[in-house]
Specification:
The protein is α/β, with parallel strands linked by helices. Helices cover 27% and strands 31% of the residues. Helix 5 (102-115) runs parallel beside helix 6. The longest helix is centred in the N-terminal third of the chain and has 14 residues, at 14-27. The structure holds S-adenosylmethionine.
């Protein structure tokens, strides 16, 4: 996801509603400190005091900084970057880990667990791997580079987003499919004690996204 202007030019879509679902959970616990991974425009950061963000993409960082957010360039899979954030109450990531391969997810979860305070919480959303291949996804379409098989790891795909005219548009999203087990196993191995998965459904009545709530 390299072009912030193009990505955020798309009309309000399902992803933003899903971000609201996460915000509801976080706001209810009034965090002392919040770090957002892959913060993009930084919308979530605007809502919290003592909040910071990192994003791997320079265009996203500049976009968020222009809007007054405390954001730096950084890669969540890099332990040297994440060691700069310690004792964080809440770490959040909206639609970031589908941009990572299984080995990168493993490194990211380990780093995040290390940066959280004891009993801190890590929240993240992903598109639901179990319904990802459907044709009737709300506001977007997934195009696989290789044959889709649910249990296969790291299948590359492109996400096309619907614009105002209802046309599907490539805005540069290149993601990877991994089954839910990859997320669960890596959370467990990173040392998260308890994970709850909230199912998100919007316009359509199937579960298009999953919101993970993970306790250290
Ligand atoms: C689909 S965008 C979502 C942006 C934002 N969270 C939102 O919901 O509007 C995914 C974001 O994750 C960032 N990202 C991808 N891999 C990353 C990594 N390894 N470390 C930090 N950020 C990453 C991308 O640059 C991009 O801004």
């Amino acid at each position: 996801m390299e072009n912030a202007e193009l990505f955020y030019k798309q009309p309000e879509n399902q992803r933003e509603q899903d971000n609201e679902a996460m915000h509801g959970l976080i706001a209810a616990r009034s965090p002392n400190s919040l770090l957002e991974i892959g913060c993009g425009s930084g919308d979530m950061l605007n809502r919290y005091d003592n909040s910071r963000g990192i994003d791997i993409n320079r265009s996203m960082v500049e976009f968020a900084q222009k809007r007054g957010n405390n954001v730096v360039l950084g890669d969540v899979t890099d332990s040297g970057v994440m060691e700069q954030y310690l004792g964080i109450d809440v770490i959040a990531a909206n639609y970031v880990f589908t941009e990572l391969k299984a080995e990168q997810i493993k490194a990211a979860f380990k780093n995040i667990q290390y940066s959280l305070r004891n009993q801190g919480t890590f929240y993240f959303t992903i598109t639901n791997p179990q319904t990802r291949h459907r044709e009737d996804l709300p506001g977007y379409k997934v195009v696989f580079d290789e044959q889709f098989k649910y249990e296969r790891k790291d299948i590359p795909f492109t996400v096309l987003l619907e614009d105002e005219d209802g046309k599907l548009r490539d805005v540069g999203i290149r993601d990877f499919h991994n089954p839910i087990g990859v997320y669960q196993e890596n959370l467990y191995n990173a040392g998260f004690l308890e994970t709850r998965i909230h199912e998100l459904s919007g316009k359509n009545d199937f579960v298009h996204a999953l919101l993970f709530e993970c306790k250290k």
